[in-house]
Amino acid sequence: MKKSLIALAVLAASGAAMAQSSVTVYGRLDASVGSGKVGNITNGVGPASNTQLFNSSLTSSRLGFRGTEDLGGGLKAIFAIETSVGVDSPVASSLGDRAAFVGLSGGFGTIKLGRHDTSFDDIRDLMVSSNLWDSTNFASTETIVGTTGFAGVGNLADYGDRASNQIRYESPTFGGFSAGVSYAFDEVAAPTKQDRTAFNLRYKAGNLDVGYGYQENKDNTALASNIEYNTLAAAYNFGAFRVSGGWNQAKNKGATPTKADTYTVGVNVPVDALDFSVGYSTSKAKRPAGTFEKGDAFSAGVTYSLSKRTRLYALLTNGDIENAAGVKTRQRDIYAVGVAHTF
């Protein structure tokens, strides 16, 4: 009888501990068939059309694990490991290449240590939150795009939405206001300097969401990569439709200073199982001698929800970049139809 009571007590304690912890396996898989004309225009001749199977057109394919443990007194331990997945042509990936962090969360806010999004990335995401897709293939911005073989207006490097060796703090919300700051160590010996610093300020009230973000990527070994980024973004949910937009600036402080500004707007309209989205952006890049590149892009798409987790979609993006003389130098025309599943 005594042994039975002890066994029951152990099981009860184990059950209580398990109830205080949780681990979730999640992911997204996205594949589509389409065609693209992406690249330089030389003597009026643009890139050839390329029909292919795309990965991550609507959303980025991934596999992840996240969890929490209740430590008592409102304090929680948190962790996440998230890895990229190539649906079209899978290759070996580095475990946690998208995110790998451990941290603490409580009344003081949240602290994360490891690889994860920078504080600036939250505001950049807000700027295009009304678009149906988060993949750079179909992003309606021409200042900086991640499409392979295509340099955006100004030829500036992207800010990098994630950073390794990073510590990030996210504040609690006070009357709708919140803030965040992140710092990524360069972990190289002096005098080399290659760290990343970012912060954001945000206000949410009802259907309104407004924020400002700043990031500096220091690199004293390659001044072309020593860049500052600023973003002002806002989004509003009108019920029948949602709108987002903002301003983004990338500024290179090297030997030939370059500054590129983008203004973008997106609208999302749900109609039963359908979801329609359009986006437009216009960009201009300047150097001390004046404007040397400009461009704009338009994106449109529709999704059809087969269930809460599975969507069919059709997307297109059209964008061109011109030099100071008004001659088109690069183009990005892509369309695709596909399926995305979230689990």
Structural write-up:
The chain has 343 residues and is mainly β. It has one domain (24-342): Porin (Beta Barrel). It is built from 2 helices and 17 strands. The protein has helices at residues 2-19, 119-127, and strands at residues 21-40, 50-55, 62-72, 75-84, 99-106, 109-117, 162-170, 177-184, 196-205, 208-217, 227-237, 242-252, 258-271, 274-287, 290-305, 310-323, 328-342. A 16-stranded antiparallel beta barrel has the order 1-3-4-5-6-7-8-9-10-11-12-13-14-15-16-17. The radius of gyration is 23 Å and the shape is globular.
Based on Cα principal axes, name the global outline.
globular
Strand content: over 45%
Helix/strand order: HEEEEEEHEEEEEEEEEEE
**CATH architecture designation:** Beta Barrel
What is the CATH class designation?
Mainly Beta
Question: How widely separated are the two ends?
Answer: 46 Å
Output the strand order for the largest sheet: 1-3-4-5-6-7-8-9-10-11-12-13-14-15-16-17
